[in-house]
């Protein structure tokens, strides 16, 4: 048995595809249940509504529908066959017109009229597909299901008259010998022989009814998704396809809003244990989701405890309260009896054991009827004060989590409620079926999607899933992206650290991705698909309800970006950065960052990838006392004084360094010492000192009078000052020492930056090239200080340091909830 829904039958091309899929199925005998062409059922119902409300636009709607159906036929069938079918459709459209005219005159449409009209789409669809398959030489016939399927109205929707239907169907079949039988979905006749339907989306149900009547081997429900997913993919981008479900799980999921299958589809096939497969018409090679008895999951292994999530919208929550209910037997019975008499179906019930109140959820459209029914049914009780209030809250949604194996597994509810709590979703009511297959909560409808996503990620995303945004894909940023590109896959598979770079933004342009940017070709992606940068939109995109953690990595040196950290962190985003501006802004700002409760990781602000900040933190947190930190913190100045041996003038070395790209474009930015001063402030604050940038005493190497003007003018004027530095070097050498440009801070808050002399044996005297070196003198490391030394600049080591911070963050946030 194969069923194709409206999503598979959108246009002529799709009917052809459907015919192809049918032919490819291996079984010698196939039955095919079809829905109406996509959107047609809605359009038919709108026609009735239009006529009823005397909106003459319905005529145009009718003409348009006719045109579309005829265009479909013309596109698919050869002229002769097309004419024959069109002449039948002409009769149908004439009938519809007559009925609508009557509705127009009456200004009202009975249920029978709606049922009759809304069923035409299936009739046409079945005949079109039948014509198409017949033209392709298949032995095919089609059945108007109303000739076989008889239903009686029931409380839970139409009830199948199995005996009658089996006879009628057998009778119809007895005179036919075909390979493919096309059957209309959705429609049936009632006990009076009047056309009716199985309710919206009822074709799934039709398929399983006929599967049972035919003793089919399997039911394949073909649609536009790869199977039943852990949540509606339109609401939860991260939803994944479920391999297998039990009938009961599928029923619960469908009942609580998983629109991919009608909740009643399972019942007719359970008895004969016929499996149902949900499959994608557009990817017929996929196996889809298998719905069967729970015992035979296809891939073996333990099934996950929680299978899926779904929401039902437009629900009203009703709360009936009264002291008179306590201990009085039969209240619930009477209450729900009254609702049954009023034809209301209750979606969810919850009663606290105090029996002081009963709370239940009903479709919002029935809220008024419910109020009325309860008031009437309990008139006396209200009158005598046993019942006090009936309160109806509209615009609610039910969110359900479903899974057979939830029973007996502790912690499912905790994870569920924990996730909702973290997302700030208020829960209005809770119910857990005693089967423990389902926990349902009622939330405000405005929170429903957020709640769904949060719950879904609570169960399915590793707590080390990071939604990452990278600001500034320049030198360091680009290197970081390339480093990530090589590792993310391995980290996800081996370490369960799921780093999802979901956005990259520069000054002008940005790219965003709902899932993850493919890092292997992020640069081309950026070239091709970037849109105008918008930092607020960027940040909103990175922080979502369905990612447990959001991280922004600022690879710029921008003051303006650094000024945003506090706001970002206060709204829950973690920040990682090599940018020194935030930590060297005012103490007030620094305190705000620390108080935000989010992680701010900035190892690379001092000494690039060298473990300086982390070492300091470890010392302090383990109770050591820092007496002094002193070091060479600038790769540029390190290089200049390592090379300054008296043979060449300082200005010449500076020029060479500039050419090698070791200096900033304007070398005064290095020589002024202000960059070193910032690093000292960062370390000093880490030590717990209260210090501002202005408190650091800085000896600038920019000669007085040359602070302003262009970089070129500066370079031209520098040689005139060579003598002064040469003299200082001379003096140092005579004392057996070298010159080094260092920064230091002591426990009492003395912070200085400038040129100092060191013995030839001192570690600072023996460094190479652009090395940084830092010496920690502490209570524990007093005689023999702790030294960290190594390359302290360059995109590779800086990006590596940022990457390490990112992994550190994953470890911090990944602790079990
Ligand atoms: P058809 O016309 O084929 O019957 P439907 O629109 O009725 O198709 O059902 C398919 C749609 O169901 C999907 O496109 C998807 O948006 C929606 N859907 C809702 N919940 C789920 C879920 N849990 N898994 C898969 N699809 C779902
Ligand atoms: N065409 C009907 C509907 O839109 C039945 C179905 O598609 O299952 O509800
Ligand atoms: Mg459907």
Outline:
By secondary structure, this protein is an alpha/beta fold.
Commentary on this structure:
The protein has 29 helices and 31 strands. The chain is α/β, with parallel strands linked by helices. The chain is elongated, with a radius of gyration of 37 Å. It has an 8-stranded mixed beta sheet with strand order 3-6-2-1-9-11-12-10, sandwiched between helices.
> Radius of gyration in whole Å, from Cα?
37 Å
Strand content: 15-25%
- Label the overall shape: elongated
Number of strand segments: 31
The parts where pLDDT drops under 50 for at least 5 residues are 296-301
Helix content: 40-55%
Tally of helical runs = 29
Mean pLDDT: 93
Distance between the termini: 46 Å
Search tags:
binds adenosine-5'-diphosphate; 817 residues; 7-stranded mixed sheet; binds magnesium ion; 29 helices; binds aspartic acid; alpha/beta
List the helices and strands and how they pair.
Elements: E1 2-4, H1 12-24, E2 30-34, H2 40-52, H3 57-76, H4 79-106, H5 111-118, H6 120-135, E3 140-143, E4 150-152, E5 159-160, H7 162-174, E6 180-184, E7 187-190, E8 195-197, H8 203-213, E9 219-223, E10 244-246, H9 247-255, H10 266-270, E11 276-280, E12 289-292, E13 308-321, H11 331-341, E14 348-351, E15 357-363, H12 367-377, H13 379-383, E16 389-402, H14 412-422, E17 427-432, E18 438-444, H15 448-460, E19 465-471, H16 475-495, E20 498-505, E21 509-512, H17 522-529, E22 531-532, H18 535-542, E23 549-554, H19 559-562, H20 565-570, E24 574-576, H21 587-595, E25 600-601, H22 613-621, E26 626-632, H23 635-643, H24 650-659, H25 668-671, H26 674-686, E27 697-698, H27 711-717, H28 722-734, E28 737-746, E29 751-759, E30 771-778, E31 786-791, H29 795-813
Parallel strand pairs: 1-2, 1-9, 2-6, 3-6, 4-7, 9-11, 10-12, 19-20, 19-23, 23-24, 24-25, 27-29
Antiparallel strand pairs: 4-5, 7-8, 11-12, 13-15, 13-16, 14-15, 16-18, 17-18, 20-21, 21-22, 26-28, 26-30, 28-29, 30-31
Helix pairs in contact: 1-3, 2-3, 2-4, 2-5, 3-4, 3-6, 4-6, 11-12, 14-15, 16-29, 23-24
